[in-house]
Design a protein that fits this description.
Layout lengths: L5 E2 L4 E14 L12 E14 L3 E14 L5 E15 L7 H26 L16
Antiparallel strand pairs: 1-2, 2-5, 3-4, 4-5
Length: 137
């Protein structure tokens, strides 16, 4: 039987992951305002923290700020901090950048699902995130 928490490709294991902080503010009724004429400001960041004995954690921070282009009203604000705690398998040397990339790729499906669900249930068109491309220059 395979251990589903172990990712053989990345040589890291998710020990735990959870929503650390979640806020969804909907100051205006979104019903009937689901047009394509809205503007979404999207910000993301990753906080890496190393621990002893081959452990590290990541916090993925996402902020989505949606406004109407027609009347510049704030439609919604979503803020999500998603925490992941990992164990490094094996004795290979990894740098912080590669661990953050690997951990982010493992946590991303959870974040994507949460943002889609919250925006849909909040009365908006569901926001579907694209995979993060770490190779952009």
């Amino acid at each position: 039987m395979n251990n589903v928490n172990v990712n053989q490709e990345y040589n890291i294991k998710i020990i735990k992951n959870f929503i650390q902080d979640l806020s969804f503010e909907n100051p205006h009724n979104l019903n009937g305002n689901n047009s394509d004429n809205n503007e979404i400001d999207f910000n993301t960041s990753v906080i890496f923290k190393p621990y002893d004995n081959n452990y590290f954690s990541l916090i993925l921070k996402y902020t989505l700020d949606c406004s109407s282009k027609q009347n510049e009203k704030k439609l919604f604000i979503l803020e999500l901090d998603y925490f992941g705690y990992f164990k490094i398998l094996g004795n290979e040397n990894y740098d912080q950048k590669s661990l953050a990339e690997k951990g982010t790729k493992l946590l991303f499906p959870f974040v994507k699902e949460i943002i889609e669900y919250i925006t849909r249930k909040g009365g908006s068109i569901p926001i579907l995130l694209n995979e993060i491309d770490f190779n952009l220059k």
